[in-house]
Amino acid sequence: MTEHSREPMQPGAQSILDGVLAEHRAALSRLDAKHTAALDNLAADILAAWRSGGKLLICGNGGSAADSQHLAAELVGRYEGDRPGWPAVALTTDTSLLTAVSNDFGFAHVFARQIEALGRGGDVLLVISTSGNSPNCIQAVQTARARGLRCHGLLGRDGGALASLVDGALVVPAAATPRIQELHVVLIHALCAMLEANFPTAGSRDW
């Protein structure tokens, strides 16, 4: 077996990493009290929904779809604490449903149709969008509000159209999509920590 030859570090690798980290730290440093308040409001609405027997619905596209599933996994499974699973559903996972709705009604309806079927008054919808302008997220919020759901947005840039449509907009202080996505994950983990800190660890029916 011949030893596989390996090239030395690629030219510019260190400067690229340094630049990414610098942008990330700068974006993190811009999180302030208004972001804490928006996150706290989101947590409060989720807690209220769960205490009344409701659920959290989550949606987004691309990386935001992955974040939707990430959040649902942390809540239904576990984040750090040992406790019962909490009712959270990512509307991004059923490929048969997603393709059927997209084919029959159009992709803009892919989340709204699920909210028609699954959403109930008192539930919470969280839409995740780096631009704040995703048409299917906008349709989702419009349908959810008509059905009596509380709506929140985890957004980027200036918040886009969604910022004025949701009950609570958490707009991260970054313009580049990768930095927005990184801060979204940070805030998702902070949300999970808030929920675990403020919920009893006994059975869910004891809330």
General description of the model:
By secondary structure, the chain is an alpha/beta fold. It has a single domain (32-200), classed as Glucose-6-phosphate isomerase like protein, domain 1 (Rossmann fold, 3-Layer(aba) Sandwich). Helix content is 49%, strand content 12%. It has seven helices and five strands; from the N terminus they run H-H-E-H-E-H-H-E-H-E-E-H. The chain has helices spanning 13-29, 33-51, 63-76, 95-105, 112-118, 135-146, 177-198, and strands at 56-60, 88-90, 124-129, 150-155, 168-171. A five-stranded parallel sheet has the order 2-1-3-4-5, sandwiched between helices. Strand 3 (124-129), helix 6 (135-146) and strand 4 form a beta-alpha-beta unit. Helix 3 (63-76) packs parallel to helix 7 (177-198). The longest helix has 22 residues, at 177-198. The chain is globular, with a radius of gyration of 19 Å. The model has no long low-confidence stretch (mean pLDDT 93).
